[in-house]
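Title: Comparing notes on inverse folding

I've been comparing how different people in this forum approach sequence design from structure. To keep things fair, I'm posting one structure and asking everyone to reply with a full sequence. Here's the target:
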């Protein structure tokens, strides 16, 4: 009986340690803002489930990109930083949405295609699976 109570206490204690998935997501968003990868603002929403997901919304810095379209040159360092930042999160998937400095939605489709992520494009959204995130970490 004492062994069961001790084991239960240890399990309960372990669950409480460390940041939550949303705290990890918030930290990732803050890191994108403070890094030098072309992101002015970032917010993240984390959903815990069997296959945890995150939605990351970024507002890009001023750039030479055409209105409404992001270049591969702009997207690559953002994705590389996201790949490194999500390594310990065990995400099943992550959706990336981007806006220009004026707050208008921008398309990631062309840039994603150039970077070999054409299958991840869903309209203006880039839906990255766990395998995509693993590949991006190797850039």
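Reply #1:
Here's my take.
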């Amino acid at each position: 009986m004492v062994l069961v109570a001790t084991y239960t206490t240890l399990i309960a204690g372990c669950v409480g340690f460390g940041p939550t998935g949303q705290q990890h997501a918030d930290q990732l968003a803050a890191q994108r803002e403070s890094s030098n990868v072309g992101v002015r603002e970032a917010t993240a929403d984390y959903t815990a489930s069997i296959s945890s997901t995150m939605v990351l919304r970024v507002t890009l810095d001023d750039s030479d990109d055409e209105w409404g379209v992001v270049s591969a040159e702009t997207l690559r360092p953002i994705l590389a930083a996201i790949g490194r930042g999500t390594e310990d999160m065990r995400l099943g998937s992550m959706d990336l949405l981007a806006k220009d400095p004026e707050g208008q939605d921008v398309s990631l489709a062309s840039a994603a295609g150039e970077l070999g992520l054409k299958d991840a494009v869903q309209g203006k959204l880039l839906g990255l699976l766990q395998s995509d995130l693993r590949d991006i970490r190797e850039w």
